[in-house]
Amino acid sequence: MSHSSDGAGTKPDEQRRFRGALAMFATGVAVITAPRGQGAPVGITVASFNSVSLDPPLILFSVDRRCLSLADLCESPRYAVNVLGEAQHELSNRFAKANSGKWDGFEFSTRDCNSHVLLPGALATFECEAYAQHDGGDHVIFVGRVVRHQARHDGRPLIFFGGEYRALDERLIAA
Ligand SMILES: Cc1cc2nc3c(=O)[nH]c(=O)nc-3n(C[C@H](O)[C@H](O)[C@H](O)COP(=O)(O)O)c2cc1C
Fold first, then answer.
1. pTM of the model
2. Which domains does the chain have, with CATH numbers?
3. Ligand 1 centre distance from Cα of residue 18 (Å)
């Protein structure tokens, strides 16, 4: 069913329609991680990851101002983007819940406590230095400068579309 919006309707109604329209843009799913001085690292699932610049190498993602991790992320000099593979939807759900048990029983690797936190099995990882933060309305836009990246080119991505996880189907046009 298609919907157009003329801005009429109640605010929650209009927001729901806006979200529904945005959900037509298929994305991958990533977990942003950042080391915390004490205790478990920051970990938050995002679909807002995107590339920005090749030179310098910049990426972005946006974080809802209501997220519990926001303050720590804003202060962190470094963070990592972990791009999830199609088998990692449970990991996506784990880091999409606002609770303190996100890392319970979970193995994660840091080279040291001031280093990046990388999730095993990720399709790609981008280790970033904090580069800029911008006002994004009810979100904060983070721009990171990539200092190191790795990718597995044999894996398949986790896709988020229409509010649901999907798997990549097949090539439309053979290369
Ligand atoms: C597939 C998916 C994509 C998401 N993308 C974002 C996003 O881009 N930005 C955001 O702020 N929250 C996003 N969320 C919601 C956060 O992951 C969720 O609010 C999380 O609980 C935040 O954790 P925190 O409150 O402990 O910081 C997404 C959730 C899912 C399942």
1. 0.93
2. 27-161 (2.30.110.10)
3. 17
